[in-house]
Amino acid sequence: LNLLHVSMASAQARLQQAKAWVVEGLQLATDRRYEEAADVLGQAVLSGYAAATRDIRLDLVADVVHYCLRRNKTTEPRAAALYAFFLSGSAPKDGIDALSAALDAADAADASPSELSALRRMRGFLYALAGTGDKAHKDFEEAVALDPANVQSLYLKSKTLRFMKVPQEAVKTLEEYLRLAADDEPDLPEAYYETIVLKCLLQPKDPSILPALELLWNKAQELEAVHAKLYNSTPESYPDRPKAQRFLMLLRAMAMQQGAGAAAAGGAAAAGASSAPASQPPSNEIS
After folding, report:
1. Do residues 11 and 185 touch, judged by C-beta distance below 8 A?
2. Closest by CA position to 25, among listed 4, 14, 41
3. pLDDT means over runs of 10, the chain (287 residues)
4. Phi and psi of 40, rounded to 5°?
5. DSSP 235
6. Would you state the torsion angle of the CA atoms of residues 163, 165, 166, 172, taken in this order, to the nearest 10 degrees?
7. I need a labelling partner for 227 at 20 to 30 A (CA). Which of 16, 49, 105, 126 fits?
């Protein structure tokens, strides 16, 4: 296995590479060169950007997967990744089995840390789809340990922690992802919105967190404009955006009410002080 690892490249560059692999792999599948197609398409899947290319033809992928099954090639890492990708929506547990066998084979072959990290990230994603959050969390942890540049694993780990109802840990992981991810990471705007939502759930009706949340919102809006050009995304592309906006509107209203209340209290105190009778100096007269 010799997966091209481009951790230093931008997400946009990695997406373009994934698109090139998808185009090449689908042409190989069209030409019925299935073994080569599995190798190339598997690279695209392990890059983490295959689905984002929106160019995958599942009918051709099915042909390649059936070829691999007939020849018992689904334990090979790239073929296993493609097989698991194909099954992710219908039979994630079968994909998990294939990736587990592929990880054993990759370990035995002394695969690189980045390759092992990509396989663990994908298996973690399937564990999450299968509702096995603890195993997904463990795979994402190991994926990041193997390759700290694998920021997609951090984002997926945060989503798993949220699913597991551990919001404090989800926020910590999201904040680490926000710190490390390049601005063109496809999930980045949504990660900002998710952070706002989780912080509001952890500190409900607390306007003191509003300034920090406003900074997160402004950054998300800035990125949204950039991503609209890069990925043709729209506000509807970000599921947590409306919820984050509602939370911010609520906190802004509460902050205004608190400000008005404080001003009214201050005015009342000042008025009371001005209407009080002046104090008289003590008398020196002895009765």
Report:
1. yes
2. 41
3. 42 85 93 93 87 80 88 82 89 92 87 91 93 94 92 93 94 96 92 97 93 97 92 92 96 89 58 54 42
4. -75, -45
5. G
6. 50
7. 126
